[in-house]
Amino acid sequence: MEEPQKPNEGLNLSTLSGQYAASLGMNGELEGKFHFTDTDNYSYPNARASSGSAVLNGYDTLDAPPNYDFYSNTEVFGRVRRSRPSLFQLHSNIEDDAFPPPLYEEANGEGQGSPQGPEDEEKSAEPAAEPTRFGWVQGVMIRCMLNIWGVILYLRLPWITAQAGIGLTWVIILISSCITGITGLSTSAIATNGKVKGGGTYFLISRSLGPELGGSIGLIFAFANAVAVAMHTVGFAETVQNLMQENGTSMVDPINDIRIIGVITVTCLLAISLAGMEWESKAQVLFFLVIMISFASYIIGTIIPATPQKQAKGFYSYRASIFAANFVPSWRGPEGSFFGMFSIFFPSATGILAGANISGDLRDPNIAIPRGTLMAIFWTTLSYLVISATIGSCVVRDASGNINDTMAFPTTVDCQGTACIYGWNFSECINNRTCTYGITNYYQSMSMVSAVAPLITAGIFGATLSSALACLVSAPKVFQCLCKDRLYPLIGFFGKGYGKNDEPYRSYLLAYFIAVCFILIAELNTIAPIISNFFLCSYALINFSCFHASITNSPGWRPSFRYYSKWLSLLGAVVSVVIMFLFTWWAALIALGVVLFLLGYVLYKKPTVNWGSSVQASSYNVALSQAVGLNHVGDHIKNYRTPSFTIPFHHSLFCVLFFVAQPQCLVLSGPPGFRPALVDFVGTFTKNFSMMMCGNVVIGCPSPSAIESASSESHVAWLNKRGIKSFYNGVVADNLRTGVQMLLQGAGLGRIRPNVLVMGFKTTWRKDQPSLVDNYVGIIHDAFDLQYGVCVLRLRDGLDMSRRMQAHTNPVFEACSELGLQEGAPPANASLDPDAVLAVTQPHTVFRSRQEKKTIDVYWISDDGGLALLIPYLLTRKKRWARCKVRVFVGGEIQNMEEQRAAVMALIKKFRLRFHDVQVLPEINEDPQPEHIKKFEDLIAPYRKNAINKDGEAHEDTIKECPWMVSNEEMEKNKTKSHRQIRLNEILLDYSRDAALIVVSLPVGRRGVCPSPLYMAWLETLSRDLRPPVLLVRGNQENVLTFYCQ
């Protein structure tokens, strides 16, 4: 077993398999600060290498294969965390840079591999204690079911059935469950869109909608849960007080008895909570068993034949006539209406967020929250339906309870009520409205029906105490996460956690204090509607969060839970708000007023947090859409604006993280009409959600004709006519590379600026002047230097259509070259007629056709931050590519294929990309065929120095005149990489002949070490003889994919 690299040791490639390895000095130390080896690699102090590079890539290199550590923010005890090499390491010639950037550039700005001090080593000597984690059953489903069930189930559901009838009661139950079910689906979608941490509802809303709405709803939701503790505790205390009163027992008086019992009860619940989540969870399981036993006692009681005492109270076991009579409504009293019954029942359907509120204590929140929440909604809905149907089939609406109200013979003559056919006459109490039993009059009907009546009382105790305990745990957990984010002043003190579970003891005490204050009031009838509205407000915002994230079309919105609808979420949000006002309009206004006040405070303070919220995505989309929309607006003197540019002194890291995952593309198209396939391809995956800019470089002096040629409005008109949502930017420069440098540094505005350079493959590089080839490769180097990702597209028939369109050639791009420029081309004003391009019929390209059921093959050989995966994912979101299946290929070893496939599959699953086909290629480690090696050598032969000097003597004048020539030393240093491109092409031909698109990692040539002709030979060899389009992709080595919510 290989020992982990020590922090202060340099990278030693001699430990890796391969023909070429890092050399050591005489004393065993690496020679020099940056030591060049025969594998075109460097040794860096404090660098941590992946020994799997040679295995998964097929050769020794710093270019690392995909690895979980590159995307994870956590450390694993006993294992050195691996880090992805930066673009500087892979591409730059370190000897030319006196001030190199950090070895490993991470998005958070923290370098990896820094030496550890003695204190750090002492801290990491022992692993941290493993906190208690719960699965979906114990952590979510049981908790939600207990919070949903309450006293309404036992004491009000039979009465609602009597009022509305079984039919309308089922309608009420199903409508309530639909609302909570839609919210559950929205919650599941949000919870599976990345790794969820602690904070529950607040975390989900704030990371989706941002701190403004998230912070306000988090504060009132935590407060509502704290007050709900008092509500449930008072419900329990009132039940106990009633039992004491029935038995003639009292401590002081009814009100003070409730206060005393309530304070004692909530203190006991606090003790259970402070004992830890494990004890609290065990208590919840105990309450769950008590409720299950009470249900069983009730069901058994409905089957047992009724005794005369129970018949006098209206219970006759299952009777079809009773079911028929109770199926229709019988409204009574001031609350006797459909919505009156609905408003009473709906609070009993809430509580679905109890599991999500302890997200930090779940073993796998992404699985537990959707499965547990939806199963809880299903089982509780089923229980409500069953109890409503059974109680309505067994018990009549009115009964006197008098055992003497019997008849000698069952008859309906001069007898009112369903009980007449069973020999009981309750006509007198029905006419006088003095009946004390029956489901209309007796709230304890379930106790009367039950086989063992005290078990129903135990069920009431279990339902109230479990709900109080769930709220007492939820409130501190939510409030702790809010305190840690420091969105509001004076609350950070309560965010401190203790123990292995990071228990918020201070927040527990605060919630306990709030609960005791409301318990002492002992009258919550006016406060209860406000709390219900706060919960409904949370439901509305959760549904709106899901809708908003979906409608913004952000690439970061990739929930693994697919069974949701953005329009259902919007419906759930609207219905929740409507119900708020229908319940209590003034309470709804109070709730909305509090939300708006807290929202205004956060907007005023502008906290420096960045969570990649949908509000940010919406702002980006609106700005981009409005800016692109100006392409259709002509200039007018009345709308003249003086352009003004400001160079900022500094920028904030918090403002850039969200847009990193947006592939904002600068397309080197020249006149867009000359390369429609390149424009169509990029426009496919950037349309309606990301920036695209077509760049055109006109070579020449900045004369009026040249400027007119570069900025011709006909180019924008062509894009609009083709339906491409893109900017256009034309510049005039002395040469192509200078012009592209201007575009790379000056394109865009603010955050709407490109981060990916897309260019066509230069098919005529062997015919062009060497200086043009050097410029082409230099553009790629410049893009890497400026931290751009690079994509190179190659089609079998080429990209340039200028001759086919019978248009004059733009001097920037030589006819039939894919990005070549003729340095000595005629002036710009002599050749280009943009209006002629606009007049030509729009050409058809492969990227405008609906793709067949083929595959998009991704060869994820080198980990570049995930751009090679993100682009195929964005393509499959479009209708034209929706039928294509994505296959991901990685390197590997034949003896460990299944383990390596499972590891890559698990990583892709965390990205939520819905790619399910991963194939490991052990043959990547094999040597290429000799005939293919000979073909490559023939390809590069004209550029070898010995081709100019046949006698083998290289003159200094020749070297100075031809710096782009490839020496024998350079060929030997890059031999392994050259063979790798040859072998990859063989694999592409074997596996991807019939693919719709091939995406493969773009090789990185080290500047000053890999000559331009050799690099072009790599690209030529890698992509030749392939029928499908080939996209060579290299990100900027920073993450564009994440499995976190923020």
TrEMBL record:
<feature type="transmembrane region" description="Helical">
    <location>
        <begin position="167"/>
        <end position="193"/>
    </location>
</feature>
<feature type="region of interest" description="Disordered">
    <location>
        <begin position="99"/>
        <end position="130"/>
    </location>
</feature>
<feature type="domain" description="Amino acid permease N-terminal">
    <location>
        <begin position="56"/>
        <end position="98"/>
    </location>
</feature>
<feature type="transmembrane region" description="Helical">
    <location>
        <begin position="451"/>
        <end position="475"/>
    </location>
</feature>
<feature type="transmembrane region" description="Helical">
    <location>
        <begin position="213"/>
        <end position="237"/>
    </location>
</feature>
<dbReference type="GO" id="GO:0055075">
    <property type="term" value="P:potassium ion homeostasis"/>
</dbReference>
<dbReference type="InterPro" id="IPR018491">
    <property type="entry name" value="SLC12_C"/>
</dbReference>
<feature type="transmembrane region" description="Helical">
    <location>
        <begin position="372"/>
        <end position="391"/>
    </location>
</feature>
<keyword id="KW-0915">Sodium</keyword>
<feature type="transmembrane region" description="Helical">
    <location>
        <begin position="505"/>
        <end position="524"/>
    </location>
</feature>
<dbReference type="InterPro" id="IPR013612">
    <property type="entry name" value="AA_permease_N"/>
</dbReference>
<feature type="transmembrane region" description="Helical">
    <location>
        <begin position="134"/>
        <end position="155"/>
    </location>
</feature>
<feature type="transmembrane region" description="Helical">
    <location>
        <begin position="258"/>
        <end position="277"/>
    </location>
</feature>
<keyword id="KW-0406">Ion transport</keyword>
<keyword id="KW-0769">Symport</keyword>
<keyword id="KW-0868">Chloride</keyword>
<keyword id="KW-1133">Transmembrane helix</keyword>
<feature type="transmembrane region" description="Helical">
    <location>
        <begin position="283"/>
        <end position="304"/>
    </location>
</feature>
<feature type="transmembrane region" description="Helical">
    <location>
        <begin position="530"/>
        <end position="551"/>
    </location>
</feature>
<dbReference type="InterPro" id="IPR002948">
    <property type="entry name" value="SLC12A3"/>
</dbReference>
<protein>
    <recommendedName>
        <fullName>Solute carrier family 12 member 3</fullName>
    </recommendedName>
</protein>
<dbReference type="GO" id="GO:0006884">
    <property type="term" value="P:cell volume homeostasis"/>
</dbReference>
<dbReference type="Pfam" id="PF08403">
    <property type="entry name" value="AA_permease_N"/>
</dbReference>
<dbReference type="Pfam" id="PF00324">
    <property type="entry name" value="AA_permease"/>
</dbReference>
<dbReference type="InterPro" id="IPR004842">
    <property type="entry name" value="SLC12A_fam"/>
</dbReference>
<keyword id="KW-0739">Sodium transport</keyword>
<dbReference type="GO" id="GO:0055078">
    <property type="term" value="P:sodium ion homeostasis"/>
</dbReference>
<keyword id="KW-0472">Membrane</keyword>
<dbReference type="GO" id="GO:1990573">
    <property type="term" value="P:potassium ion import across plasma membrane"/>
</dbReference>
<dbReference type="GO" id="GO:0016324">
    <property type="term" value="C:apical plasma membrane"/>
</dbReference>
<dbReference type="Pfam" id="PF03522">
    <property type="entry name" value="SLC12"/>
</dbReference>
<keyword id="KW-0812">Transmembrane</keyword>
<keyword id="KW-0813">Transport</keyword>
<keyword id="KW-0325">Glycoprotein</keyword>
<feature type="domain" description="Amino acid permease/ SLC12A">
    <location>
        <begin position="139"/>
        <end position="641"/>
    </location>
</feature>
<feature type="domain" description="SLC12A transporter C-terminal">
    <location>
        <begin position="675"/>
        <end position="809"/>
    </location>
</feature>
<feature type="transmembrane region" description="Helical">
    <location>
        <begin position="338"/>
        <end position="360"/>
    </location>
</feature>
<dbReference type="InterPro" id="IPR004841">
    <property type="entry name" value="AA-permease/SLC12A_dom"/>
</dbReference>
<dbReference type="GO" id="GO:0055064">
    <property type="term" value="P:chloride ion homeostasis"/>
</dbReference>
<comment type="similarity">
    <text>Belongs to the SLC12A transporter family.</text>
</comment>
<keyword id="KW-1003">Cell membrane</keyword>
<dbReference type="GO" id="GO:0008511">
    <property type="term" value="F:sodium:potassium:chloride symporter activity"/>
</dbReference>
